């Protein structure tokens, strides 16, 4: 039965399932490379203004709740671990366990977003808003504060959007895995969904020191 | 592989070897990532002098990122092209960030935006407070 399933998955323009899956992986890595470059542009902008307004950036960074950034790092690392573990079960044909572990990852992502919400609402309350909407007094005059918060919202906001997309991908693929859509021979969608989630984690690993530990 | 249905559950398409669990490896990587997170958190609280705080924080971040890419994302087990694609993107990240920051670091003062420490002071600007911020306000 698994043999027929594997053969059905083979698109007519591929010679073998192995080549098809290898092509899918290569395509995903190309996409992830573009994602890395997207964030790299924001990090470059951060680097420039961190250099030009270093004292304000350091003080703005110390104003943030380091513990929230730290807890969110642990939360995302753990969610990456549960996704990797879920792929391990998918590779052995245990889609039910994959669904369970992807569900756990989504729950951890919700914790991440909840903490981000706490942080954002505090910033809004304090007037720590980007650009000309910046009314916070704690960083003194000068353009450093508004620029820090402009970059803060761009970087964490874009990352937050990626978290939401990643949760959606994990939900769809996890649900399908639970239905038995994938087998030990064919589970490349589980692998690619996992890759996307690990990238979200990977980006945060660099956001955390830049924003919170400057 | 497809001709041996009895191998189902063991054969892993796309990898050369028979699939065995990576669970132990994942746990080891998780523990390493949590320890590195704790170290970077404590190092940031110590407030290292000069530029060392950034250097330490970014070195630890690169170590963590490498662990995630190699083992959670399985670059370690991948074939050449996939590794090449990702490493190429990292080369361009280094070029983009390195050259942009180097550009700003080597500009003459007139080219720096107002209010930044390396900018020319406009007339009538108060001098920076004694021993205080390097920023001109």
Describe the structure.
The complex is a heterodimer of chains A (214) and B (137). Chain A is mostly helical. Chain A has a single domain, classed as Four Helix Bundle (Hemerythrin (Met), subunit A). Chain A is 80% helix and 0% strand. Chain A has seven helices and no strands. In chain A, helix 2 runs parallel beside helix 7, helix 4 packs antiparallel against helix 5 and helix 6 runs antiparallel to helix 7. Chain A is elongated. The N and C termini of chain A lie far apart (56 Å). The mean pLDDT of chain A is 91. Chain B is mainly alpha-helical and 137 residues long. Chain B has a domain of 56 residues. Chain B is 52% helix and 0% strand. In chain B, helix 1 packs antiparallel against helix 2. The longest helix of chain B has 26 residues. Chain B is flat, with a radius of gyration of 25 Å. The N and C termini of chain B lie far apart (70 Å). The N terminus of chain B is likely disordered. Chains A and B meet through helix 1, helix 2, helix 3, helix 4 and helix 7 of A and helix 1, helix 2 and helix 3 of B.
Rounded mean pLDDT of chain A is: 91
Query: Largest inter-chain interface?
Result: A-B, 70 and 69 residues
Which fold name is given in CATH as the topology of chain A? Four Helix Bundle (Hemerythrin (Met), subunit A)
- What kind of assembly state do the chains in view correspond to? heterodimer
Straight-line N-to-C gap of chain B: 70 Å
Q: At the fourth CATH level, what is the homologous superfamily of chain A?
A: Cytochrome c oxidase, subunit III, four-helix bundle
Percent helix of chain A: over 70%
Give the gist of this structure:
Chain A has 214 residues and is mostly helical.
């Amino acid at each position: 039965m698994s043999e027929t399933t594997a053969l059905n998955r083979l698109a007519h323009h591929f010679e073998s399932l192995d080549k098809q899956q290898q092509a899918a992986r290569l395509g995903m890595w190309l996409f992830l490379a573009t994602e890395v470059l997207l964030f790299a542009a924001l990090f470059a902008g951060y680097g420039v203004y961190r250099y030009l307004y270093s004292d304000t950036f350091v003080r703005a960074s110390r104003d943030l709740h380091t513990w929230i950034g730290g807890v969110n790092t642990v939360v995302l690392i753990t969610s990456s671990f549960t996704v990797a573990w879920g792929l391990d079960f998918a590779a052995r044909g245990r889609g039910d366990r994959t669904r369970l572990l992807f569900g756990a990852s989504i729950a951890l992502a919700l914790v991440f977003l909840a903490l981000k919400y706490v942080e954002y609402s505090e910033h809004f309350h304090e007037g720590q808003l980007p650009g000309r909407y910046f009314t916070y007094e704690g960083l003194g005059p000068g353009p450093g504060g508004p620029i820090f918060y402009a970059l803060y919202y761009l970087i964490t906001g874009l990352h937050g959007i990626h978290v939401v997309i990643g949760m959606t991908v994990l939900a769809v693929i996890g649900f399908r895995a639970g239905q038995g859509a994938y087998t030990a021979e064919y589970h490349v969608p589980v692998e690619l969904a996992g890759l996307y989630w690990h990238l979200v984690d990977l980006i945060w690993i660099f956001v955390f020191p830049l924003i919170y530990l400057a | 592989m497809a001709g041996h249905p009895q191998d189902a559950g063991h054969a892993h398409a796309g990898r050369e070897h028979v699939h065995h669990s990576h669970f132990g490896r994942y746990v080891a990587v998780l523990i390493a990532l949590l320890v590195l997170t704790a170290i970077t958190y404590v190092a940031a609280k110590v407030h290292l002098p000069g530029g060392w705080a950034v250097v330490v924080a970014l070195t630890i971040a690169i170590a963590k990122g490498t662990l995630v890419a190699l083992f959670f994302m399985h670059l370690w087990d991948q074939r050449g092209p996939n590794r090449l694609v990702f490493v190429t993107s990292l080369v361009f990240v280094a070029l983009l960030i390195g050259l942009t920051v180097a550009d700003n670091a080597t500009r003459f003062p007139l080219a720096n935006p107002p209010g930044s420490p390396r900018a020319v002071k406009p007339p009538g600007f108060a001098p920076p407070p004694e021993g205080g911020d390097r920023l001109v306000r």
